[in-house]
Amino acid sequence: MADSAAQDLLATVGLARYLHDDSGGTIHLELGTHHPGAHGGLEMHLRVVDGVVDTCRVQLGLLHRSTEKLFEARDYRQIMMLANRHDWLSAVSSEIGVALAVEQATGIVPPQRATWMRMLLAEAGRIGASALFLAALGVPGCAELRARWASWQEDATGGRVHPMINRIGGLEHALPDSSTEQLLQIAATVEASLDSWDAHIAHRSELTGLAPVSPRVAEDFACSGAVGQASGLDWDLRRDDPYLLYDALEIDYSTPVFEAGDAAARYRSLIAGMQVSAAIIRAATERLAQVGDQPVNVPLPKTLRAPETAVHVSTQNPLGIAGWLLVSDGDVMPLRLKARTPSFAHLQAMQFALAGTPVELLDAAVASFFFVVGDADR
Predict the structure, then answer these.
(1) Between the CA atoms of 243, 244, 250 and 251, what dihedral angle is there, to the nearest 10 degrees?
(2) How far is 201 from 103, CA to CA, in rounded Å?
C-alpha cells in the first residue's frame, strides 16, 4: 500500500475528548449512552491504512486514582470503602475479595449466613453489570433490568452504586427478607429473556467477525470472564478454585466456550453467564433459608491487626477474574495490597484485536471489550 493511504489518528473515549480539539487527527468514539467504559477517559493511538486499523496502542492513566497507595494509608476497616470504587460495576465483588484476603490473613471466619448473602450480592451484581453492557448495545429490556437491579441493591444495602455492605468478618447488616423475593423475580426475568437476547446478538451482523481475540492473545494477557470465554479460555473460579460456598452448590458453572473470539461471541458469553448467575441465586436462596436467623458478622477487636504474612485471593468478578495480594507486617494498615483487575487485561488484548477493524466500526469493537476505565487506572 502507498504511504499516502496511511494516517495516524488519536481515538478518544469519554472525558478524554475534552483534552483534544476536533482536528482531522482526532476521532471521538461513542460506546453508547449506558456503556461504563465511557465514564472515564481513554485514549488510543491508531495507525490507519485505507480506513482500516493497522496498529493500536492504548494510552491508560487519565483516571488514575492511586487506589493501591491509598490502601497503604488506611486501616483494614477503611480499605473496604476504597475497594468498591475503582470498578463501579463490581463494587460488591471487590469488597468481598478484599474482605476474604483480610479474613484469611487474620483467621476470621464469617458466619455461614453472611457467606450465602455475599453470594447473592455478588451474583446479583454480575447480572446488573452484564445488563448494562447489553443495554449500551441496545438489547431490548436490558436497560430496564439494570434499573431494577440498581433499585434492588439500594433497597438491600442502602447504596445504589457503592453498597458498602461487606465488612471484615461478614456484612454490616442482613439482607431484608423482601429483597430475596425481589431478587428471585430478577432471576426469573433473566431466564425468560435469554433466548430473545441471544437472537438479538445473532441478528447484529456487524458484530460477527469484529475485533477477534485469538486464544493465544487471550491467554497471554490472561483474559477472563466473557472476554476470555469468547476466545476459548474455559476459566471460572467458582468451579476451578471455589471460594465462599460455591462448591457447596450442585450447579454446573460451565458456560459455553466459543472459539471465534469476536464481538458477537463476547456478548453471547456475557448472556450465558447471566443464566448461570440466575441458577446460583435460586440455589443460594434455598440454602440461605436453611441456616435460620444466624448473625451476619463476628465481633472484631477494637484495633484490628493482621499478622506478618502474605496472602493472595482471587474472585470471579462481573468483568472477569480479580486478584488481591495482601502483604502485612503486623500493623493496622496493609504494607501492600496489590490488585490485579480484568479491565487492564482486556484493554491490553484489545490493542491486538483492533488490527483489521474498519474505522467506522471502532465504536462497536471497543464497546465489546467489557471494561471500566477506573478498574484499569486504579
Answers:
(1) -70
(2) 41
Note whether 244 and 96 are within 8 A (CB): yes
Domain containing 239 — which CATH number?
Answer: 1.10.645.10
Cα separations in angstroms, 156 against 164, 179, 245: 11, 6, 21
Helix (H) / strand (E) containing 177 = helix 177-203
Instruction: Report the interhelical angle of 263-291 vs 177-203 (nearest 10°).
Output: 160
Q: Which of 225, 215, 223, 224 is nearest to 260 (CA)?
A: 215
Quick: pLDDT tens for 141-182: 999 999 999 999 999 999 988 899 999 999 999 999 999 999
Residue 40 lies in a domain: no
CB 82 within 8 A of CB 71: yes
240-249 long-range CB contacts below 8 Å, 24 or more apart? 241/314, 243/100, 243/313, 243/314, 243/315, 244/96, 244/100, 244/115, 244/118, 244/119, 244/122, 245/112, 245/115, 245/116, 245/119, 245/284, 245/287, 246/119, 246/280, 248/287, 249/280, 249/283, 249/284, 249/287
Q: Distance between CA 118 and CA 179 in Å, rounded?
A: 13
Collect contacts of 19-23 with beta carbons under 8 A, ≥24 apart.
19/43, 19/62
Contact between 278 and 187 (Cβ < 8 Å) = yes
**CA 354 to chain CA centroid, nearest Å:** 21
Number of domains in the chain: 1
Instruction: Name the pairing type of β-strands 26-29 and 41-49.
Output: unpaired
| Three-point CA angle 6, 12, 14, nearest 5° | 165
Rounded mean pLDDT, 85-111: 95
Residue 350 within any structural domain of the chain = no
Burial of 22 (0-12, 13-18, 19+ CB in 10 A): exposed
Residue 61 is assigned to a structural domain of this protein: no
- The conformation of residue 85, written as its DSSP 8-state character, comes to T
Nearest to 341 by CA among 362, 310, 320, 363: 320
CA neighbor of 348 nearest in space, from 210, 220, 211: 220
Output the pTM of the full model.
Answer: 0.95
Give me the domain span that covers residue 306: 67-342
